[in-house]
């Protein structure tokens, strides 16, 4: 009994000897298992306080967490706008697995000047690391554009973390945690996305510089300058890549150059905008306003050495906010009121940048939360703008117009030649045969079967299948109004327009648009329906555009219903100004595709809708090969034709992905 009592006293004494106040109050430990092989957002587990003046010692920080009024982030990524306060965050991570783990605690936002990581282990060991934009890059535990801190955690161990942050830029603290391998996966993907962005901008810069030397138009050199400053150098600074790639040992220069690049970016917007929209001729008064406003970033650059960084950074945010709306208004006025076509590209591109830029600026100001959209929208918008501006800068509009006029001219000449021989039926039949493929292309991974049954000696249906590039098949199927010799002549015209179109059209919507421009107004009030598809066997992708044509059907042996695909689009010849939207569908081995003209529906009519009967027929035979399906359709056609001549031409094309 005495021994038991002594043992209990020793246990109590041992407990009191090693017990400490909870270092991180009002928060629950984060078990490592919740990361589940991914990066994990800690905003649900953060408590924090603000300090002014800044705290530096562990004792001061620990005392504040025990005595100060603490705030919780409650699942919202901390974002405080432009503030001069220091923020200290606290959280606990518990290794609930039976293995030693190396974890990386990191902050994705790269514009923090001073970041201090402190980790307190259960053994009493304290690990510290101080890094930030104003410290050499070698201070960071890992080569990453944000800030990271590596810690080893033993099985069943809990580690308490304190993170202190301060900056003269906006205060955003997206704290994350990940196991080492998952962190490197995240960094690799992040690096890939940055590489894609800078690759797009770099290629477009070189391309437009080359065009400038060819045409000597100053708009190109202003645009290249804008890309170099805004989309490359300023983005390097904004994304924290300057110390990673170029200046690892020059933290003060990295810090100082950010505002300089910010105002240079704002300045380059002006000459680029003035020349792009031809403001001097299109809007002289607005041109003078632009010249006046362009002096603001120049004056700001001159004031940078004399005024505080924070004040100038806030001034840049406010000026860019106002400039964005002004430039959007001006571009709309020039594009749609003054009807200056290149300004439409400017308006569309600048709208993308404004959406992304405003989201970023408002996040910096603390009005918008930190999320995937506000973190990446500026870069995404700028990448889209770069592409749209490149289109607007060139004389592509005039080139395309001239090309269309040439196609129309050739189509008109060929039409006159065909009409001259239209009275000869035999010649019309030979002409019809020449418009259809004599040999179907053979393509690995694709089986093709076609059927063509004119209602008379010659008909108005048309189809063509062409190999387009190394991995794509382009297919067009069309139905001219009526049948017989006139329809055959119109189909031949369509063939000519189609073959000329393939020289520059690389997607189905453009194919239909180019054909429509060539034929509209030349058809003597006749119209045609058409459907164009591109099958990409490498990407396993189907692109479809439709001009009033019956839908195509897609199915496989596992289908519970036949997929009916019919994008909207007006008839060919209805108007020259018609846009044909596209749909994109994934393809899998075993998928079958049926294209046809509406004559096939008549064969299945039996008191009910022919289309509904055809769909039911296909659903029953969905597992059959295209050869078997072809035989079934062919047999159905011949049986119905025995009852009497068909009222309309019948054409169908079957594809199977193998």
UniProtKB/TrEMBL annotation:
Q: Which Pfam families match?
A: 7TMR-DISM_7TM (PF07695), 7TMR-DISMED2 (PF07696), SpoIIE (PF07228)
The residues forming the signal peptide are: 1-19
Q: Which InterPro entries match?
A: 7TMR_DISM_rcpt_extracell_dom1 (IPR011623), 7TMR_DISM_rcpt_extracell_dom2 (IPR011622), Bact_Sigma-Reg (IPR052016), PPM-type-like_dom_sf (IPR036457), PPM-type_phosphatase-like_dom (IPR001932)
* Domain PPM-type phosphatase residues, every copy: 443-657
Question: What GO molecular function annotation could you give as one example from this UniProt entry?
Answer: phosphatase activity
Q: Which UniProt keywords apply?
A: Hydrolase, Membrane, Signal, Transmembrane, Transmembrane helix
Which domain of life does the protein's organism represent? Bacteria
Q: Which residues cross the membrane?
A: 192-213, 220-240, 260-279, 286-306, 318-335, 347-365, 377-394
Task: Give the protein name, as stated in the record.
Answer: 7TM diverse intracellular signaling
The organism is Leptospira wolbachii serovar Codice str. CDC
């Amino acid at each position: 009994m005495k021994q038991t009592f002594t043992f209990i006293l020793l246990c109590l004494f041992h407990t009191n000897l090693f017990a400490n106040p909870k270092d991180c109050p009002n928060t629950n430990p984060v078990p490592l298992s919740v990361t589940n092989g991914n990066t994990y957002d800690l905003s649900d587990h953060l408590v924090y306080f603000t300090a002014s003046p800044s705290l530096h010692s562990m004792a001061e920080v620990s005392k504040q967490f025990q005595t100060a009024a603490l705030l919780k982030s409650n699942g919202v990524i901390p974002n405080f706008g432009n503030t001069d306060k220091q923020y200290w965050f606290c959280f606990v991570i518990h290794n609930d697995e039976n293995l030693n783990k190396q974890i990386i605690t990191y902050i994705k936002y790269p514009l923090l000047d001073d970041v201090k990581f402190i980790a307190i282990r259960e053994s009493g060991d304290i690990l510290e690391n101080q890094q930030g934009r104003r410290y050499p890059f070698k201070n960071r535990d890992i080569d990453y554009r944000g800030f990271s801190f590596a810690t080893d955690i033993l099985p069943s161990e809990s580690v308490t973390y304190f993170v202190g942050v301060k900056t003269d830029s906006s205060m955003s603290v997206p704290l994350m945690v990940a196991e080492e391998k998952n962190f490197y996966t995240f960094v690799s993907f992040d690096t890939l996305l940055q590489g894609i962005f800078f690759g797009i901008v770099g290629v477009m810069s070189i391309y437009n510089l080359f065009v400038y030397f060819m045409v000597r138009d100053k708009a190109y050199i202003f645009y290249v300058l804008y890309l170099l400053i805004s989309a490359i150098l300023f983005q390097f600074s904004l994304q924290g890549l300057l110390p990673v790639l170029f200046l690892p040992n020059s933290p003060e220069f990295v810090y100082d150059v950010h505002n300089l690049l910010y105002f240079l970016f704002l300045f380059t917007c002006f000459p680029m905008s003035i020349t792009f929209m031809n403001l001097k001729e299109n809007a002289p008064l607005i041109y003078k306003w632009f010249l006046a406003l362009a002096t603001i970033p120049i004056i700001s650059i001159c004031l940078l050495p004399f005024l505080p960084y924070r004040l100038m950074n806030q001034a840049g945010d406010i000026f860019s906010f106002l400039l964005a709306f002004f430039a959007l208004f001006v571009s709309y006025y020039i594009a749609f009121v003054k009807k200056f076509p290149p300004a439409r590209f400017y308006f569309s591109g600048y709208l993308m940048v404004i959406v992304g830029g405003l989201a970023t600026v408002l996040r910096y100001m603390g009005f918008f939360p930190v999320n995937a959209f506000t973190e990446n929208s500026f870069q995404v918008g700028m990448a889209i703008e770069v592409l749209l501006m490149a289109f607007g800068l060139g004389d592509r509009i005039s080139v395309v117009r001239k090309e269309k006029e040439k196609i129309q001219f050739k189509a008109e000449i060929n039409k006159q030649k065909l009409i001259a021989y239209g009275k000869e039926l035999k010649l019309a039949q030979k002409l019809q045969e020449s418009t259809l493929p004599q040999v179907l292309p053979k393509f690995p991974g694709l089986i093709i079967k076609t059927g063509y049954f004119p209602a008379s000696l010659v008909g108005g249906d048309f189809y063509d299948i062409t190999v387009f590039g190394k991995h794509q098949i382009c297919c067009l199927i069309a139905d001219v109004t009526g049948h017989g010799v006139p329809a055959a002549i119109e189909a031949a015209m369509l063939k000519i327009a189609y073959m000329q179109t393939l020289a520059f059209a690389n997607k189905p919507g453009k194919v239909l648009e180019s054909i429509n421009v060539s034929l509209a107004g030349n058809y003597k009030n006749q119209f045609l329906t058409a459907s164009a598809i591109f099958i990409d066997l490498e990407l396993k992708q189907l692109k479809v555009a439709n001009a009033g044509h019956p839908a195509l059907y897609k199915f496989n042996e596992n289908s519970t219903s036949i997929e009916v695909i019919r994008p909207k689009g007006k008839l060919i010849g209805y108007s020259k100004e018609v846009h044909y939207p596209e749909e994109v569908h994934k393809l899998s081995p075993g998928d079958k595709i049926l294209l046809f003209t509406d004559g096939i529906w008549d064969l299945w009519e039996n008191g009910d809708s022919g289309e509904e009967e055809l769909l039911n027929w296909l659903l029953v035979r969905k597992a059959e090969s295209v050869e078997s399906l072809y035989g079934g359709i062919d047999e159905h056609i011949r049986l119905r034709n025995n009852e009497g001549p068909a009222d309309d031409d019948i054409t169908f094309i079957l594809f199977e992905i193998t």
